[in-house]
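Two records follow; treat each independently.
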Amino acid sequence: MLHATITDIILKSFYTVYNQLGYGFLEKVYENSLAYELRKRGLFVQQQMPIRVVYDGVLVGEYVADLLVEYCVIVELKAVEALRPEHQAQLLNYLKATEIEVGLLLNFGPRPTFARKIFTNDRKRGLRS
């Protein structure tokens, strides 16, 4: 599995943070806590990574992903009752708009849940031109 070692550390850190904080905080609290936990485990973490969306050579949008880990995994955080299709679409669009191929969607909801998405660069031809 692509970047399995890194995603395993991210998921273990996710559950560590969830077990400490539980449900009910704002996403920013979880973002800061998870970033801290990942750094403590020796990983490089960039918070609030800018993502530019280009269409036909023109910048048409700018978004911000919650975390970029080790330059190869985008992590998007939620604190909602349940993950919805639009949350997964958001993560896939972040992958489409970048050269990052692996993303994790982590939900600090009433029950901790996650989704792993892969969108390989060979499938992205023409999407970022």
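The next record belongs to a different protein.
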Amino acid sequence: MNIIIYSKIKTLRNLSFFIGISLLFYNCAKSKAAEEPSMEKKVYVAEKNEVVTVVLKNESFQKELISNGKIVAAQKNSIQFEVSDKLEHLYVKNGDFVHKGQVLANLNPFKYQQRVARAEIELKKAKFQFEDMLVGRGIFTTRRDSIPRDIYEMVASRSGYDVALLEFKTAQFELKSTKIIAPFSGKVANMESRVYENVSAGKDFMTLIDDGFFEVEFHMIESEMSDVALNSRVQMIPFALGKTYSGHISSINPLIDKNGTILVKAVVKNDGKLTEGMNVKVRIQKEIKGQLVVPKSAVVLRDNQEVLFKVINGRAYWTYVKTTLENSSSYSVIAHPDKSSSSLAPGDTIIVSGNLNLAHDSEVVVSPNEKN
């Protein structure tokens, strides 16, 4: 009997233990669930098509003609000695700026000085003989314009005076030619000779470049001839510098070459950074009045055709257009002549930004940063 009662008490204790454990797990799970935030439903917000617009108006369009060219010196000359001898002095080096009339180099002048002295002696002898022959003919002057031409030529030839005078002038020229004097102001280039080296007559000794102004040579196609004229303004951008220079057209070759192009030259002032042989981009602008002008970003493709989006009462409607002129930033446009529904007029509000993914009849919001 006691054994049975003990067994029931033990069973009740085990049952109470399991019930306590279960309640403990239940309370923990309930507490954890209370700590986790509740999941909220996402609210769908309609996407706003924010755009930037401009008001279309008649204005001047800057038509651009683009070409590539090369910078060449407006004045560039190879300088040579007229006589041969050893180089005695060299006063400049490559890259130096020199002034007109400045002595640049000279040869050893000794033998040419001797030739002048000898020629001067021979000239004096011939002149005495020339004067004696004139006196024998009753002529007491040596002024050429006071002597009959036939008598002067005969006496000068027989006395050797004309030959002696020629030799003297030649000797003077050769002595003078032992020096190189700058014929104009500019920079020295391509000089390779050194002092005490022998220099040959007629061989290129140096190049002198007037770099105060440069010419830019470029080609334009035949159909663009009517858009250029002498003294038209041009812009030149050297590829190596990325800086824009202004100039004007100085010459237009009237002949069309085998490639269907014409040679055009423009003059540009050097600021000290331009160098002979630089490659440049040339841009010529011509003003065309009375055009409907829009930024390039305003024109997009729909159905493989060019369209503009107009804003009417807060909605975007496309209209087919044709671009008639183009420059680096803008188009000149007209309503497409083959589309009866196309219309374009001054005063229309045109979308210039935010139009890439727009559909016809989309609702739009004009940005406060509207361009005017």
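Discussion point: The first helix runs from residue 2 to 35. How would you locate this feature using only the token line?
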